[in-house]
Backbone:
């Protein structure tokens, strides 16, 4: 006898993250999409946008009230920041598991913060799951193994592809402005700076940039250590944390952002140490739409439903833009 599939609803399905999620849900043997909401695409068949979608499903317009009435096991919210609360408040009155991709609940202790490689053992709040930010995932994976040895706030220089800015037109996803260009923005107080400082319990400084490529994040983190370390010491700290983590690759080489595109895993390493062993630079890369968003959401859904964490995530699967 085969177990019945877990039924999901997706709110914000037209966005970059929403479309990526629909593709992964379609490839997942244990998940079934029950509905997908979009105001702009209402009435259109999902299969026009995602090749493996159910041919009968069409995008719907659903407000919070309507979403809470739908019979699904899990509702995934892939809405812009600031819009999830209304939906979450209504859904909390049902038995539906909520996975919120926005930043709205990442500081709320009632919600489980789902970065599985670092928070898998925190069991509380599994009915309400807050998916981490994309840059925030890259920073935490790079800093966490050494968080107890940093003596000053780590400095994180992040470069993202412009899909990180979503589909709503802005300077940060203006392909003409970005051509041959690099756009720095919000060098003080970015949401992900606050998120990482909050989660790691150590302040970080974050300098975000958008580049002309579409997807992927390259993060360069500088840390001042409270004791002198060798390259071998540093490597051992990272291997200890990630040796049995299929979705975090550890490498001596500086990881390149293009290699992360279309892959579920993040890569951390390329360590460079100063002569006194106290100043360390570490690099991380990931696909902002996958390990930075949709892949991590699928890990969280699998864990919440007590399925194998990596079910439906084939790391060899490569997607184009
Ligand atoms: N892009 C990334 O790399 C990334 C990574 C990690 C996390 N996130 C987070 O994931 C969320 C989605 O990101 P995204 O890049 O996919 O954004 P996006 O491309 O701008 O998509 C936003 C989605 O929300 C819907 N929407 C917008 N305003 C709405 C409203 N007032 N009421 C109902 N639906 C509305 C849009 O569809 P309609 O307008 O058709 O309804 C669309 O489906 C954001 O919170 C973002 O911070 C993004």
Residues:
């Amino acid at each position: 006898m085969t177990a019945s599939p877990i039924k999901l609803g997706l709110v914000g399905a037209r966005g970059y993250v929403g479309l990526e999620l629909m593709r992964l849900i379609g490839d997942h043997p244990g998940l079934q999409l029950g509905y997908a909401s979009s105001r702009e695409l209402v009435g259109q068949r999902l299969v026009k946008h995602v090749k493996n979608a159910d041919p009968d499903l069409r995008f719907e317009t659903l407000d919070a009230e309507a979403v809470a009435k739908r019979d699904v096991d899990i509702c995934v919210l892939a809405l812009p920041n600031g819009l999830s609360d209304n939906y979450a408040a209504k859904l909390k009155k049902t038995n539906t598991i909520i996975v919120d991709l926005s930043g709205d609940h990442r500081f709320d202790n009632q919600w489980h913060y789902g970065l599985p490689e670092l928070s898998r053992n925190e069991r509380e709040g599994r009915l309400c799951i807050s998916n981490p930010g994309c840059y925030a995932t890259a920073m935490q994976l790079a800093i966490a193994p050494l968080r107890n040895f940093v003596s000053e706030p780590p400095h994180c220089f992040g470069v993202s592809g412009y899909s990180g800015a979503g589909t709503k037109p802005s300077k940060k996803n203006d392909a003409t402005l970005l051509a041959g260009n690099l756009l720095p923005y919000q060098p003080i107080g970015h949401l992900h700076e606050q998120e990482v400082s909050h989660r790691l319990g150590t302040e970080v400084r974050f300098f975000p940039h958008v580049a002309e490529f579409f997807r992927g994040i390259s993060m360069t983190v500088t840390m001042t250590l409270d004791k002198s370390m060798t390259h071998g010491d540093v490597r051992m700290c990272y291997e200890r944390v990630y040796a049995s983590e299929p979705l975090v690759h550890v490498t001596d080489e500086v990881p390149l952002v293009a290699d992360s595109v279309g892959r579920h895993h993040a890569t951390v390493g390329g360590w460079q140490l100063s002569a006194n062993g106290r100043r360390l630079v570490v690099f991380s890369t990931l696909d902002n739409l996958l390990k930075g968003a949709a892949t991590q959401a699928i890990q969280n859904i699998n864990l919440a439903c007590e399925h194998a964490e990596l079910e439906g995530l084939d790391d060899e699967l490569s997607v184009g833009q």
In short: Residues 118 and 320 are 29 Å apart (CA to CA). The longest helix spans residues 290-304. The first strand starts at residue 6 and ends at 11.
